[in-house]
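User: Teach me something about this protein's shape.
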Amino acid sequence: MSTTRIADIGWAILWDAEAKRHVYRQCIDIVFTDDRITHIGPGYTGPVDKTIDGKDLMVMPGLVDIHSHLLSENVGRGVTEEIGNPALYMSGVADPKPLFLPGHSMDSDTLAAEGLRAATRMAISELLLSATTTVVDLAIPYEGWLDTLADTGIRAVAAPMYRSAAWVARTGHTVEYDWDEKAGRKAMEAAFRTMDLAVQHPSGRLSAMVSPAQVDTCSVELLRNSNDMAKERNWPITLHTGQCVWDHLEITRRHGLTPVQWLGDIGLLSDRMILAHAIFLDHHSWIRWHTHRDVPLLAETGTRVAHCPLVFSRYGQMMESFGQYVKAGVSMAIGTDTQPHNMLEEIRLAATLGRIGGRHVEDTNIGEVFHAATIGGAEALGRDDLGRIAVGAKADIVLVDLTHPAMRPVRDPLRSLVYSAADRAVREVYVDGRQLVRDGKVLTVDRDEAADTLQKVQADMLQAVSKRDRLHRTAEQVSPLSLARG
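Assistant: First, the predicted structure itself:
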């Protein structure tokens, strides 16, 4: 056993279980033994193996990234940030992003396994540096995936994706569906075998989430079977829904109901279900559907929403609005989805875009979004020991440097962290009581090595684009450089 005391802490963010909210406390000690927090309060006098001077620190719970694709997004750095398809309502998810990233084609064979592992390691290092201690990785399983997650030291939820149909954008202005129910069933069975291995992993830090890929690419049978298996194994389940205009158009064409209403009709809405994104619901100004029932239905059924604002902002899209969902009683959580895998940036954008989407300066605030990024994510995972600093909770703890110039003057340190300092002020990160970040450096990932691998993998990927593109364009034609070559 090993006991660590963080002494005389300048500012701490603690969980008030009775009030069900985070609160500030000052001048206290936080003690953790091995993987659990064992004491919170002033003047601890028990035995310790290590003492950390906390007077210049803010101590906060690790963030919970409820929705992220780690295996390839960093390969697209400098490529995918400004591409989208105006003919597909600005989204690039079905075209042209799949030309570059296997996560969007759901074909991991388009990158070598070394590239997938390097992208995963790099993404996790970014998450750790942005105060994240738990991540849900929605991925296509590849060789060494689970061990790669575990070796970084982060707490990870394996969510292998599968579906009944692939998106096909043959014309560039419509999305069609290539159905193969037998292949979807086979992929689901393989995914559950992988999830079983995650739960059994010797690290003890891996768990599982059921992940049929998208509401429009999964048959009723696949969705119901997935939901039944999730219930049987007491695992959460997630489904991309309302992430683009065309999934609304396609589901209403098939069923005469919005995606959310259709999922309710077939029995999939519950507090076990996490809808990824849920932006284009029936109230959204881009949709203008004749009902306004989606958000109330999510609240009534306890269905959760994984909100990932950054990537959608690149398409000129946003949720309307974060505060509306919260005020309606919807349980919100925060994810990074794509690169940069930076939860502090997502929190900042969720608050900022919430005010724009809600057209009101008081639409939401950092306290509400921070709750979603901690407690909201933990509850979505069915965990009452994550996303909080409380006695008995896991020692997933972040130490923020209050002396960093971007944190000063110190008056409301959480607000300063999100709006000003971001990851620059994150000094130390612990997961399960094990230190993974020291003095702003990740201890478990060789970032330079991962970056070198990604440089090579990206070059190979870019070279192959013309063979994959329906118009045989080069990568630079699909994604021009931001400045012309001189």
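Now, about its shape. The chain is about 35% helix and 25% strand. The chain has a mean pLDDT of 96. If you'd like, I can walk through any region in more detail.
User: That's plenty for now, thanks!
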